[in-house]
Design goal:
Order of helices and strands: EHEEEEEEEEEEEHEEHEEHEEHE
Largest sheet: 7 strands, antiparallel
Shape: globular
Number of strands: 19
Distance between the termini: 49 Å
CATH class of the largest domain: Mainly Beta
Structural class: mainly beta
CATH superfamily of the largest domain: Trypsin-like serine proteases
Oligomer: single chain
CATH topology of the largest domain: Thrombin, subunit H
Number of helices: 5
Number of domains: 3
């Protein structure tokens, strides 16, 4: 059954433990044992969490507030948002949360951050773009303070107990008066209705798959530097190496991280050739990367070059 969010939102919160094989794609980067939180978001028991918790997992275990345990599987990944949808093998509770209206989640808004371990009162400090070096851009992420510990997959709730966002990371946040605080970045949550049904049926988000290169890129002293590359990904197969400096995409110079990623995505969908110019030890080199759909790559074990 559905219950009002003001009755018992914490009853929709479960803890996650994910076990990842030693030779999995993300084992070296994210570890082989990961713990965090998931939030039940549908009457039939679907849950949402931050995607990196369960990426490449061979086992996923859920525990609810009563101590009931169930194994779970990944129903779908949305790599653009960085979220994953889970389904327990056996039901462990019937409370679930609805998505909040995100246009009402504005700087200064009082909220609650809660997870399987603790809960705190917090506020929205900023609502702005976030860029991750793993080919990731959120147009409008939610930044909150103070910081909640064990943030991975934490639920960000409004006063009605509706779900505003899913915890991604800890970071410094800057207030309007330029005070620096320790806080968190949350991925805004709005997966309901047709989109959630599509993910349930297809195992992925409904959008056109973006071209993926398999790189980690850092904006360092005004230069875009390759700091990591997945083995056997398009960048690796094309000859790109850690330490290479990105100069241009398809002949157009790029100087900002978000600009670089968006330039690649603007070339077309996954599978498009990405013309990339880089600098290596003072020498300019040009490469043609045969991009792929990240969903396909995650099926095979690999490692990161660094």
């Amino acid at each position: 059954m559905s219950v009002s969010q003001t009755e018992a939102p914490n009853k929709a919160i479960v803890s996650i433990k994910a076990i990842v094989p030693d030779d999995a794609t993300t084992a070296n980067l994210l570890g082989t044992e990961r713990e965090g939180t998931a939030v039940r978001i549908s009457e039939d028991g679907l849950l949402v969490t931050i995607g990196y918790l369960v990426l490449d997992a061979e086992e996923i275990w859920l525990t609810n507030h009563l101590g009931q345990v169930s194994q779970a599987w990944v129903v779908a990944h949305d790599f653009d948002l960085g979220l994953a949808i889970l389904k327990p093998v056996v039901p462990i509770g019937n409370h679930w949360l609805r998505a909040a209206f995100l246009d009402k989640v504005v700087p200064g808004k009082a909220l609650q951050a809660t997870n399987a371990f603790n809960s705190i009162d917090c506020a929205v400090i900023g609502k702005r773009e976030f860029v991750g070096r793993w080919e990731y851009v959120l147009d409008e992420a939610l930044f909150t303070a103070p910081e909640i510990e064990d943030w991975s997959g934490s639920a960000l709730l409004n006063e009605r107990g509706e779900l505003c966002g899913i915890g991604s990371l800890a970071t410094e946040v800057h207030t309007a008066s330029n005070i620096v605080m320790q806080g968190n970045m949350f991925v805004p949550f709005s997966l309901e209705g047709d989109e959630l049904q599509f993910m349930r049926e297809q195992g992925r988000a409904s959008g056109t798959p973006r071209p993926w290169m398999g790189t980690f890129v850092q904006d360092y002293q005004g230069q875009l530097v390759m700091v990591g590359i997945y083995k056997d990904c398009p960048a690796h197969l094309a000859g790109i190496e850690p330490g290479d400096i990105v100069l241009s995409v398809d002949g157009e110079p790029v100087g900002q991280l978000a600009e670089f990623f968006r330039s690649v995505w603007s070339l077309g969908e996954a599978g498009v050739v990405v013309p990339l110019a880089i600098e290596r030890q003072g020498t300019k080199k040009e490469y043609m990367l045969n991009s792929i759909d990240r969903h396909l790559f995650q099926l095979s074990p690999t490692r990161i070059l660094n």
